[in-house]
């Protein structure tokens, strides 16, 4: 039995409300695929499934640390 036939038989065994959810999910997947294809056609760029590798310095300017980061907390003054 092919994957397609197995999927169809599994879907047929589901209750009606779950079948509606499966239909909505399949519609979403088709929309997503069409969006990727349309965008690739418009820009001339082939969509990539792989994510971009992080590189040294890629977070520069995105992280902020307070000037008093190392200063003792008021809660611990009694212990010092």
Round the Cα radius of gyration to an integer and report it. 26 Å
Summarize the main sheet. Answer: none
* Total DSSP helices: 2
Number of domains: 1
- Give the CA-CA distance, first to last residue: 73 Å
The shape is elongated
In sequence order, what are the helices and strands, one letter per element? HH
What does the average pLDDT come to?
A: 83
Give the beta-strand count. Answer: 0
Strand content: under 5%
User: By helix and strand content, what is the structural category?
Assistant: mainly alpha
Q: Could you list the spans in which at least 5 consecutive residues all have pLDDT below 50?
A: none
Describe this structure in words.
- The protein is mainly α.
- The chain has one domain (3-47, 55-79).
- It contains two helices and no strands.
- The longest helix has 28 residues, at 16-43.
- The protein is elongated.
- The model has no long low-confidence stretch (mean pLDDT 83).
What does this entry show, briefly?
The chain has 80 residues and is mainly α. The protein has helices at residues 3-12, 16-43.
Per-chain topology:
Blueprint: H1 3-12, H2 16-43
Q: Main attributes?
A:
80 residues, elongated
